[in-house]
Design a protein that fits this description.
This protein has 120 residues and is mostly helical. The protein has helices spanning 2-23, 28-44, 48-55, 57-60, 63-81, 85-111. The protein is built from six helices and no strands.
Length: 120
């Protein structure tokens, strides 16, 4: 049942994002920012943790989960370090994920031949 819940919650998030892409004039970068901010806000009001407990990776892997991770890192850093934690917490909480994305994308660029998109 855990796999099914992860599948339908993650699929619903992806479907809603696809609807935003198709039906609005929002650019993908702005939608990504909206998702991260929404994940942060849902984490701040305490609604995202129950969703992660219910859906697992279906809720924690999308960009909403990244926003929630940033929120948790900032919250913990502010409790430990005070005001300075506002600036340090997000970096500490997301450093491993961001580093992994950079390293694996760099390795993939060695394996596959990257091509620039022709915009003319």
């Amino acid at each position: 049942m855990e796999y099914l819940n992860a599948f339908w919650v993650g699929g619903l998030i992806c479907a809603l994002v696809q609807i935003l892409l198709e039906k609005t004039t929002l650019l993908p970068g702005r939608i990504m920012v909206i998702l991260v901010v929404l994940g942060t806000l849902l984490g701040a009001v305490g609604w995202y943790e129950p969703l992660i407990e219910y859906a697992g990776a279906g809720a924690s892997v999308p960009l909403l989960g990244f926003g929630n991770t940033l929120w948790k890192g900032v919250r913990e850093a502010v409790e430990q370090e005070g005001f300075l934690g506002l600036f340090l917490g997000g970096f500490k909480a997301s450093a491993a994920g961001i580093s992994g994305a950079l390293i694996f994308s760099y390795l993939a660029s060695w394996i596959f031949e990257p091509k620039m998109k022709d915009i003319s």
